[in-house]
Write a structure and sequence with these properties.
0% strand; 16 helices; globular
Length: 458
């Protein structure tokens, strides 16, 4: 229950009584020599995670240090056992689910925003968020399957199995959003680690051992999402038990609107990152998508660093005072930029030797687009931190949408010109320039919103 501490309520009630009445509730004069019985009477409001930003960042990076090799292992496994065309089919199958999941999975973050803006009962908000996410996911499943088979050119059984992963994916993403807003970083890390670990185990069984190809790979991903959702609900059962029927009222609608706004940012970002895939498919086919997706995934894996910084500062950035939040977000964004640039330098030096050795000579052509992607990926890295300030703290996801739309428009316009002539290299240049444009605009919006917020509290 998000309410005032018990001691604060007693203090406020006593202050409203006449002097004669308050004398009757004071202790002995000797009691005044000791410390207060109720510490909440003198302590300032505790900001979740404010004192553990550095530790939480390191912890998230350590967990990312486990999940990143797993993700790269998945790429290697898929590349070796599915071939470029099978890898491309897997990417297309998962892409449709991921797009809708990004839209619905922000319901947990919307719960955290709602708790900051207005005192609400956490469990009731989580019930509303889960109800909206599960209901919306079930409605979207047949459309995802049909789109994957009709537009993506993949087999219907593969598209259908992938679509069934939507609801469990939305469930664990929603629970994760609430955990992050409460600075429960350790449990959040365990939930985030569940999907890649279980997907890798499933693919070793279904793809390597049983040789089920693309269908086996997508099935492994489905099972991993179901198991991760089960773990998240069990480990964070204090957020939703006892279960009650969610109310579809004004509060639920406000959650849906805010989540849709933040989800639109995620969807547009995802489409912006992937819009060149559709043009590449039209001009070069699934094999080229498989090669380019390796370069793209290797480059964008660096965003795990900026995401770790953003996740660590989310709770204090939501709950702290305006000036402190501005300083925190600015420092965190610059830290994300520096960390990503350092890793990009190392990756650029190692890629020409590591990619062909790890994935095979068929993927040697992924080196050049990877090198072309790196500058844009570095410049876009701070956006994940700046969006915490714009969308989550200030509830202005439309600004983040504009950032994403501008980035996607630049990428799309350049991709239409460059891909027909230069193939995967043209796709990489288009993406890099789109990232750079979006990153510059995000900094501009952050500066404007920060100035306005500081003027209001001055």
């Amino acid at each position: 229950m998000a309410s005032e501490p018990y001691g604060s309520r007693i203090g406020a009630r006593a202050a409203s009584l006449p002097p004669a009445a308050t004398e009757g509730i004071r202790g002995d004069p000797a009691d005044d020599l000791g410390p207060p019985v109720e510490p909440n009477l003198v302590r300032p409001r505790e900001i979740p995670g404010a004192r553990r930003v550095g530790r939480n960042t390191v912890e998230i990076l350590l967990f990312r240090g486990l999940s990143t090799p797993l993700a790269l292992g998945l790429v290697i496994l898929q590349s070796r056992f599915l071939e470029p065309e099978g890898r491309g089919a897997y990417v297309v199958a998962v892409l449709g689910v991921t797009i809708v999941s990004r839209l619905l999975g922000q319901l947990g973050v919307a719960v955290s925003n709602r708790l900051r803006v207005e005192a609400e009962e956490t469990r009731a908000l989580v019930h509303r968020a889960l109800g909206l996410g599960i209901g919306g996911g079930l409605l979207a499943v047949p459309f995802i399957a049909a789109a994957g088979a009709g537009l993506g050119g993949i087999d219907l059984d593969v598209a259908l199995v992938a679509a069934f992963a939507l609801v469990p994916n939305v469930v664990w993403q929603s629970v994760s959003g609430v955990l992050l807003g409460q600075a429960r970083v350790r449990l959040w890390n365990y939930v985030q680690l569940g999907s890649p670990v279980l997907t890798l185990v499933g693919m070793l069984v279904l793809v390597v051992w049983l040789d089920l190809g693309v269908l086996g790979a997508v099935t492994a991903w489905l099972v991993a999402n179901v198991a991760t959702a089960g773990f998240a609900l069990t480990a964070a059962r204090d957020l939703w038990l006892p279960l009650r029927r969610p109310r579809l009222d004004r509060v639920a609608r406000s959650l849906a609107v805010l989540a849709a706004g933040m989800g639109a940012v995620q969807v547009i970002n995802l489409l912006s990152y992937r819009v060149e895939l559709f043009i590449l498919d039209r001009h070069a086919g699934l094999a080229e998508i498989g090669i380019y997706s390796v370069a793209m995934q290797a480059a964008e894996a660096m965003w795990l660093l900026s995401a770790a910084v953003a996740n660590a500062v989310t709770a204090p950035a939501i709950h702290d005072e305006e000036a402190a939040a501005v300083r925190l977000v600015r420092r965190a964004a610059l830290r994300a930029l520096g960390l990503t640039a350092a890793v990009a330098l190392g990756l650029g030096l190692a890629a020409p030797f590591v990619l062909p050795l790890a994935l095979g000579e068929a993927f040697g052509d992924a080196v050049r687009p990877l090198l072309l992607l790196l500058p844009g990926v570095v410049l876009y890295a701070p956006v994940s931190v700046l969006v915490v300030f714009l969308s989550v703290r200030h509830g202005r996801p439309r600004l983040s949408v504009v950032v994403s739309v501008v980035g996607m428009a630049v990428t799309l316009g350049l991709a239409l010109v460059l891909i027909p002539r230069h193939g995967v290299s043209g796709a990489a240049v288009a993406s890099a320039l789109g990232y750079a444009a979006g990153g510059a605009l995000a900094w501009l919006f952050f500066a404007r919103v920060a100035r306005a917020g500081l003027r209001r509290v001055a």
